[in-house]
Amino acid sequence: MATQTAQRNNVKVIGTGSQILMFGHGFGCDQNTWRSVIPAFIEDYQIILFDYVGAGKSDLSAYNDQRYGRLEGYAQDVVDICEDLQLKDVIFIGHSVSSMIGLLAIKQVPEIFKKIVFIGPSPRYLNDQDYQGGIDPKDLDELLEIMDSNYLGWSRMVAPTIMANANQPHLGEELTASFCATDPEIAKKFARVTFLSDNRDDLALLQIPSLTIQCEEDFLTSQTVAEYIQQNTVNNELVMLQTEGHCPHLSDPQGVIKAIKDFI
Amino acid sequence: MDKDSVIDHIKTDFLYNQLPSGFISYKPNGKILRVNETFTGWLGLPVAEVCKLNFRAVLTKASGLYYSMVIDPILNLQGKADEIYLTFITARGEIDTLLNAVSYKDDDGNVILINATVQKITDRKKYEAALLQEKRHAEEEKRKFEFLSNSVPNLIWTTAADGTCKYVNQRIVEYYGEQSLDFYSSFAGVANQDKEKSMLAWQKCVASGKTFERELRLIGVSGSEEWFLVSIVPYFNQDGEIESWFGSAANIHKQKVLQVANYSSLSDSLTTAQQTLDENKRLFNSIALNQSHMIRKPLANIIGLLNLINEDELCEGNLDLLALIGTSVQELDEMIKAAANYKAPPEK
Question: Is the ipTM of this complex over 0.85?
Fold first, then answer.
């Protein structure tokens, strides 16, 4: 019987290996975002997939503004899952905002984690004096307005749909669910929390090895930000992928798989 | 327009370039491959110039962020995205649009092309902006209401017209802990001795539209019953129909306990007073009985002595006096008997 945490975060444990890989999805998507990279790890690793509250098949009623008004609330979800499954030596792989969520989870319980992989990370999205996060406060206001304007269309697009999965039956039912399912109202709040977060000081606290995977052209973050992370984090490697976009695990899964395998 | 012109106007190239809809094809990395004249006209740039640009570069920063975070993954995973509101940068400013896009993949499942149509909706956008403003205003009003309802000590809630609970304030959450709204709709937090009657009364109010007002015992997380004055009033909309109900409950437990204590004290006082009266009455009767006996004893002696006086030896004047003394003694004896046998009138 699934525990309360497992139900809340729609936790899935797959794979046959002993080393644990925990994948945290980014903004606007759910655990299905990893479908192109999971097959490369499923034979040799135990894989933990989950949805943050508000995304995928998570328990939407578990959302509350107080807990999820800060990234620490989402990090607590990660910690809860690890403790619920009694995980040790976890390698956390986070896309986009999940990178910093993973960082905060490690800050909270460092003994659980072994390594961390950041894919398209940013410790702070808003520009700040000498720091170029890439986004002005005005852009954030407009982005939230666009989210409002797209509320109906977005809701329709991310509504659950049943899709066949004949090509990859080993992935089971998680791929028969919707892709990128997310509650637009919660996603809007998540966007605000994400873009107003500032985790630059937390980078220095990271003691375990970390890897940053960054696309050459990324509208949301940049090589400059990736280099900032490398300069301010102990034992951080940087791999630049010759691809564009913010989701290399979708646009260049082989590049992401290779970078992760080389690192772990 | 002659027949030849009609044929020219339905040729594919003409339709592609001149239809009042933008067409654009680009790679997943954003490189624009082809674009029609309608769209480049909106952008205010020649076709050749637009083809040198990246798709994301002609979007505003916020639209580019939204596209990268939300639409890009959807196109990759779902293969299409419909009616996406995006703003493009033009030579003269910006245009608001709706974008419909379809992605195409190679045999390895990688996206290789995105074809999209773009509809200009600037005027419609203004109308939507006004609607959005109203929505925000309504949300702001809702937040104000919630702030106000959380700042008062009362339990506050609202229900739909049919009585189904729709909102509870923070005081209720603190009083009952985290509960579903069904918990409140079913009066689950009302003490058993008040539940059935109050539910029936509430159902009558919902049916009749009359205000509900009662003193009820509620049981919160503490597990103890507490008295509340519960009031639920209907809110009528402009059409005179009940749109919702506004409920509030004030904790009157202390007053109620004090009131009950006062009633109890008054009752005890009255009982004590009655007992005192009864005791006094009994005492009075006892005294009256004893005193009558003490007073009647010498009187009986006087009566006996009067009987011993030889009336034959008395003159006529003394006989009259003896008769008067006898009459007075009898009258006094009757008075003492009456006083000793007095009974209080029955209580009303």
Answer: no
Q: Do B275 and B247 share a structural domain?
A: no
When scoring A132, A149, A185, A221 by the number of chain B Cβ atoms within 10 A, the one with the most, hence best to mutate, is A149
The helix/strand/coil state of B112 is strand
pTM for the whole structure: 0.64
Residue of higher predicted confidence among B4 and B204: B204
Contact A35, A14 (CB under 8 A): no
Active site residue A136: no
Do B183 and B95 share a structural domain? no
Q: Which of A30, A51, A218, A252 is catalytic?
A: A218
For residues B210 and B284, state if they share a domain. Answer: no
The nearest alpha carbon in chain B to A180 belongs to: B74
Same domain (yes/no): B291, B237: no
Could B81 and A220 be called an inter-chain contact, meaning their C-beta atoms sit closer than 8 Å?
A: no
Partners of residue A146 in chain B, C-beta under 8 Å: 62-63, 66, 85-87
Convert the pLDDT of each residue in A120-160 to its tens digit: 999 999 998 889 888 888 888 888 888 877 866 665 555 54
Longest dimension (CA), chain A: 52
Q: Which residue of B has its CA nearest to A184?
A: B70
Residue B294 belongs to a domain: yes
Look at residue A164 in the predicted model and tell me its pLDDT: 36
Distances in whole angstroms, Cα of residue B165 to Cα of each of B168, B178, B181, B247: 8, 14, 6, 10
User: Which whole number is the average pLDDT over B130-141?
Assistant: 85
CATH classification at residue B96? 3.30.450.20
Binary contact (B82, A157; C-beta < 8 A): yes
Of the pLDDT bands very low, low, confident and very high (cuts 50, 70, 90), residue A180 is low
Pair B202, B235 in one domain: yes
The H or E element that residue A132 is part of is none
Which range of residues forms the domain containing residue B198?
152-251
Number of domains chain B contains: 3
Q: What is the DSSP letter of B346?
A: P
Fold for the domain defined by A4-263 = Rossmann fold (3.40.50)
- Closest C-alpha among A55, A116, A124 to residue A82: A116
Residues in chain A with CB shorter than 8 Å from the CB of B78 are 157, 161, 179-180
The answer to whether A149 faces chain B, any CB pair under 8 Å, is: yes
Q: Is residue B265 situated within a structural domain?
A: no
**Same-domain pairing of B230 and B285:** no
Q: Does A158 touch chain B (CB under 8 A)?
A: yes
